[in-house]
Specification:
Blueprint lengths: L5 E9 L7 H6 L3 E8 L6 H7 L3 E4 L14 H11 L4 E4 L5 E2 L1 H13 L4 E10 L2 E2 L9 E7 L3 E5 L5 E4 L6 E2 L4 E4 L3 H19 L3 H29 L8 H18 L1 H7 L1
Parallel strand pairs: 1-2, 1-4, 2-3, 6-11, 6-12
Antiparallel strand pairs: 4-8, 5-12, 6-7, 6-8, 9-10
Length: 268
């Protein structure tokens, strides 16, 4: 596959991703470089990416656990930014892909705009069907940015960039599609995130924990209202399946349990 000439580095994490990666690789061909931070793939991922002219760099073992899984997504992202050949960076997960509209706008921005940061609208797909309504929408994430527009990525999970003073993120037209992985796999993924996020959010005393309870339940209350509204007004087939919706409720309650000062001290 011939790579494009847009002076931008696409950045993706891989680990035995061969069965889901090709759509991602295809939608990123406009970037002059696609940098893959690989966690020791053995399933054909490395052979596949050679077809697309990608560059592969091993994930820094300082940010991996004994099984080779990432335990610090913020610093793994910072590793990729440091390795990138170009100033503009576009981040995409191994199972995601971009539509033509957002690709065209990214190309224009990289060639014409000053350093900045741009959110992408992310929509779920389920068995190839677009999920138009979910309690997590709008699901904007900064996925295109210039190195000079950010300080670094922060947080060990649900990582995000810390923007430089004076930089305000903008929203791109178009869509990044996010296929829903099978529910048991997603729950296992969330279960791996739990101790990482609890370690970050816990240990701050009872007062902060009660504020965390209040914040989580206000957010969950708003989500529940959106779930009810969406199913009253729209076809259920266009809505995020219930089991996926309520996985976010389970995750929030699990975080609260793990960050309770009594439990946190016990598990530390």
């Amino acid at each position: 596959m011939e790579r494009g000439t847009c002076p931008c580095t696409a950045l993706t994490f891989t680990r035995n991703s061969a069965d889901m990666l090709e759509s991602c690789l295809t939608s990123c061909l406009f970037c002059a470089e696609h940098l893959l931070l690989d966690g020791g793939s053995t399933d054909g991922t490395l052979e596949l990416v050679k077809k697309y002219g990608c560059r592969v760099v091993p994930q820094d073992t300082r940010f991996l656990n004994a099984e080779g899984r990432i335990i610090d997504y913020g610093n793994i992202t910072n590793q990729g930014i440091a390795q990138a050949q170009y100033g503009w960076i576009m981040i995409t997960d191994s199972d995601e892909h971009l539509d033509d509209e957002v690709v065209q706008e990214m190309e224009r921005i990289v060639r014409e705009e000053q350093p900045g940061a741009y959110n992408v609208n992310r929509l779920y797909t389920y068995h190839g069907h677009e999920i138009r309504f979910a309690s997590t929408y709008p699901n904007y994430q900064i996925r295109l940015f210039h190195k000079n527009a950010i300080i670094k990525f922060i947080k060990v999970v649900h990582e995000r960039p810390e923007l430089c003073p004076g930089i305000t993120s903008k929203v791109l037209p178009g869509t990044q599609y996010v296929p829903l992985i099978p529910f048991p796999d997603l729950k296992r993924k969330f279960t791996r995130y739990l101790p990482l996020e609890a370690q970050h959010a816990g240990g701050k005393g009872w007062f902060n924990w009660f504020w965390l309870i209040l914040d989580k339940h206000l957010r969950l209350g708003m989500r529940l209202l959106r779930i009810i509204r969406d199913r009253l007004l729209h076809r259920w087939s266009d809505c995020l399946p219930f089991q996926y919706e309520f996985l976010y409720f389970w995750y929030a309650w699990a975080i609260l349990w793990r960050t309770c000062p009594l439990m946190f001290r016990k598990n530390s």
